[in-house]
Design goal:
Protein name: Precorrin-3B synthase
GO molecular function: 4 iron, 4 sulfur cluster binding; metal ion binding; oxidoreductase activity
Radius of gyration: 19 Å
Distance between the termini: 26 Å
Number of domains: 2
Strand order of the largest sheet: 6-7-8-9-10-11
Structural class: alpha+beta
Number of helices: 6
Largest sheet: 6 strands, mixed
Order of helices and strands: EEEHEEHEHEEEEHHEEEEEHEEE
Pfam family, one: NIR_SIR_ferr
Keywords: 4Fe-4S, Heme, Iron, Iron-sulfur, Metal-binding, Oxidoreductase
Number of strands: 18
Domain Nitrite/Sulfite reductase ferredoxin-like: 22-67
Length: 326
């Protein structure tokens, strides 16, 4: 059981990393207008280290921020920070090729309107759509199915927004020090019972999607230069790729189906993370071209930050080379 609160960074309270302040910008559903994307790009260029990181939850990170920078106010003006009190819990990952942003926006507004939910853990996650239903969400929607901790317990809902808020309140009331619904003893069955489904119903784990759609250009190791894609509306995916308008200049992105970059990810590593035992990004680039049948993730320490969901080949730095985990 967890013995301390989670320390997920946000856009208001930054994380002190080895390379300066780290801000994580929640983007429910992953959708940014051209003006919002440009606001993030300019903030990264003018306040940070000039790059933007895509996370496995389809959020954004800016690194290298100095103390006292006015990032939060910039994001608020761009419509990316509608709630100061709830900003760390706005983790809603949506199937990026589905027409679901209106539902995402309604979920986000309802969660942010409930004062009780402001203290949910920063790891709390809601998924929307079948394509992302296996990403380990605490709560998920796929049609009329309400998923709980990544399982189909038989709960079917007619009002998805109310169902998610109700389930989030139940999780909050019973979680204690737990960060995730899966960590709460009998938590899934208690929520299932609240919705009137027999506690004896079979739980069906949801299969994790294997890879992003080839229609979404990938971002090598999830890091973009702040000068890329000016004036473009984007939709972020949890596979560190982007949905962009047809005709967009995607120079520098992964568009070749045969590219060795597909499925390769890494944590920040040195020099950005003080806990990292290696420059994992440089090591991943040196390794690139080695055949791999599954996604591959490089981690600078045993915390294995940023590891994608599902079956992954991992290289974990030990201080004396890498441990390969299959």
């Amino acid at each position: 059981m967890r013995s301390h609160p989670d320390a997920c960074p946000g856009a208001v309270e930054l994380h002190a990393a080895a390379d300066g302040g780290l801000a994580r910008i929640r983007v429910p559903g992953g959708t940014l207008s051209a003006a919002q994307w440009d606001a993030v790009r300019l903030a990264a260029a003018e306040l940070g280290n000039g790059s933007i990181e895509l996370t496995s939850r389809a959020n954004l990170q800016i690194r290298g921020l100095a103390d006292g920078v006015e990032l939060a106010e910039r994001l608020r003006a761009a419509g990316l920070l509608p709630s100061w009190s709830h900003e760390r819990i706005r983790n809603i990952v949506a199937a990026p090729l589905d027409d679901n942003q209106d539902l995402v926006d309604a979920l986000d507004a309802a969660l942010c309107a409930d004062p009780e939910l402001a203290s949910l853990p920063g790891r709390f996650l809601v998924t929307v759509g079948a394509a992302v239903s296996g990403l380990g969400g605490d709560l998920g929607l796929a049609g009329d199915v309400l998923l709980l901790a990544g399982t189909d317990t038989g709960v079917r809902v007619s009002d998805p927004v109310d169902a998610v808020v109700t389930a989030a309140r139940l999780f909050q009331s019973m979680r204690g020090p737990a960060w995730r619904l899966s960590e709460v003893d009998d938590g899934v069955r208690k929520i299932t019972a609240h919705f009137g489904v027999s506690s004896g119903a079979a739980f069906t784990p949801v299969v994790t999607p294997v890879a992003p759609s080839p229609l979404t250009p990938g971002v090598p190791l999830g890091r973009l230069d702040a000068s890329q894609l000016p004036g473009v509306a984007v939709r972020l995916t949890p596979w560190r790729s982007l949905v962009v308008p047809a005709g967009t200049d995607v120079t520098g992105l992964i568009t070749d189906p045969a590219s060795p970059w597909h499925g390769v990810s890494a944590c920040t590593g040195r020099p950005g993370c003080a806990k990292s035992l290696s420059d994992v990004r440089a090591d991943a680039r040196a390794w690139l071209g080695t055949p791999h049948s599954r996604p591959v993730h490089w981690s600078g320490c045993a915390r294995r930050c940023g590891r994608p969901a599902g079956e992954v080949i991992e290289f974990v730095a030990t201080g004396d080379g890498y441990e390969e985990i299959r």
